[in-house]
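alpha-1,2-Mannosidase
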Amino acid sequence: MADIRQRPTGNEKEQVKVPLPQGKQIDKKDVNKKAEHFQTLDVVRLLLSLAGLSAVAWFGYKTLYPFLFTPSSVIETQTNLPGSKFGKKGNSVSSGEVFSPIGGIKLKADVEKRKAVKDAFIWSWNAYEKHAWGADEFSPLSQTGSNLTSAGGVGYTIVDSLDALLVLDLIPEYERARDWCENELSFDKDATFNTFETTIRILGGLLSAHYLTSTHSSSKIQADAPLFLNLAVDLGERLLGAFSSPSGIPWSGINLKTRNGIPDRDNQNVASLAEAASLQLELKYLSHLTGDYVYWKKAEKVTEIIRSQAVHDGIAPIFINPTNGQFVASEIRLGSRGDSYYEYLLKQWLQTDREEPVYRDMYDEAMGGIKKHLIGQTHKSGLIFTQELHPARHPRDQTQTWQVVPKQDHLVCFLGGSFILGITEGGNREVDWKHLDEREMEDFVVGKGIVESCMSTHETATGLAPEIAMFVQWSDEQRAANEDWYIKPNLNGVLIDGRNILRPETVESLFLAYRSTGDEKYRQWGWEVFQAFEKWCKVSSGGYAGIEDVQTVPPKQLDRMETFWLAETLKYLYLLFDDSDHIPLDKHIFNTEAHILPVFKPEYISSFATS
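Structure:
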């Protein structure tokens, strides 16, 4: 799940020059024409800024040309991808993978472990229901609840948990949550809510609840489906106001009562890539259900704007300006503010039964760019990790360049499973793991490698991974020979990187990897992660809490149980130990908050989707 909060960046950086797109020849005349074109855009932007567009003026040099199309620039990476091997310490397909037929591998449940996860969910839910019922968020140490705004709650925890209650077959708990939605839930709140979070958590939760109730074996529960759809339509109509910007890129905030989009004043009115481009699964499914394609078209326009820009090998900066639809010079990264854009490219293609090829094309291009520019490998153990590119000026000649930052957010750990899902297409094609083509083998090696490096970050005193891990680059020869990664020391007494806040991304990838390959190691790793949560995060009075420092035993618990603990982390762990016929991947996709949506045949396909 994307996290829109900014993270401090590391100090371990290497200067590299900006790369030209590799793999194709670019004619010099074309480059010169592009240069002239972007120079013209620079003049236009300057005039606009002089006319009063303060956001554009604040950032300066908004165009991507100086960063992404400098003819003399060449990227320097630590790795190569020659087919089945990765870099100097190649990873190959192990003997654990099982041939995947159409429909996916048939896997049996581990009943004992599945029950343990269900018990943890009940322990969490009962505490919330007892101490914070109806509140948006739950503080397990103080046993209190709180809302996102003073205008009142909008069902953050309850709606976010509806589909999990159904998946875990907790019917009495579900019925009480349904009654609250029917009698108490109102979106007529005169306050600013985050557009992205409201969409993925609340709209996604309502749509998933509608789908799962409409297909439930109980006719009584089936009768609840219209309730959730009506609530989703109400919320969806209110969210449309976020798309009122001049460009169609949604504003970061939305007043649910006035239906006005609200710019992000704290970030000079820009939106993040993940915020703008991770609303599509929800809005397109809402259009499919209602026949009103205004939601679909608003969401699709965002992707069309992104594709129309000169993004480099499919990877893009994390900030985009809703005023003019242009990217802002900023970091290229796969963690906070960037992550779910890449996740949704593949899932949009899968959601509409692979009938919108533009999303597969964009996904393949982006994964190629990631493999080319954002992948590193450690010297000590050959761990594959992701890194970030930060815009900078070269210290020698002040030319535009990039700084490579070997920083991997826990948020990035979704990517390993996503790479593997892209190969199997959710079980919609046969996969023989020992006979993959070159691109598939690259994707599998990198995907599996990211899962393994994410698991390596669990090798801490608590067995839990930090919020941010810094990987050691080869240029740091002495350190690189002795360790793969480390946690930055605290900043002015505040430890940020070393926290664990019950995030789901690693177990999400373990679930997808296990369902796709049948390799039992992924279940074993998932059980180890769950046991660490049980040991250090369980609160004796009820609920679970994040911890302040994964390297301290016993760790200090944080007074917060994130809603994604119920909506994502425990749901993915439960499904990891469940049989594969329950929520099969060839018939379902998960939004970035793990809400379950069906694959469907689209009745509307735009010219963009097939371009």
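The chain has 20 helices and 18 strands.
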